[in-house]
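User: quick one, fold this
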Amino acid sequence: MAKVFIMDHPLIQHKLTFIRSKSTGAKEFRELVEEVAMLMAYEVTRDLPLAEAEVETPIAVTKTKVLAGKKLGVVAILRAGLGMINGFVKLIPAAKVGHVGLYRDPETLEPVEYYCKLPQDVAEREMIVIDPMLATGGSASAALTLLKKKGARNLKLVVLIAAPEGVARVEKDHPDVNIFTAALDPRLNEHAYIVPGLGDAGDRLFGTK
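Assistant:
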């Protein structure tokens, strides 16, 4: 069964407060989302394997640690996931970046795919799927299904804010995928927005309505 990890690091929680605030403008919103994404990337990669290496410091030769060659990939769910990409690749510059385009049908509220571009070697990489919001879970579940069809075998989902409905959907459809979030909010409203949430992440990132 999928596990849900709520990241309660003080810096994440502090910055999330300003991300939620409706008085935060687009420029600051983008900067905060990137900063929180970087902090979350730090936590999500905590279990990466290490190998021993040798390095010569200005003083002496010593044994130390390096990543054990595990390949990583980051997949943004368009368009709001774009706001989290830079935070991840600044911390993990060798990660390959993919994009999945999904929009929510206004009638059915189900996701419709319109774009998919992924690293060719997804089967060899640990793929981290990112999107600020996990609301109904439809888009996240569809993106994970698409990645599995393309050969991905090792997946994680990282979101800023999740609703119980979205968590339940991902747990049902993808029990092998762990979910990392900065907050688990109480519920969705009648328009499938997370309450209290942060509004429409895409609109707030890009200044659209």
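User: anything notable?
Assistant: The longest helix spans residues 26-44.
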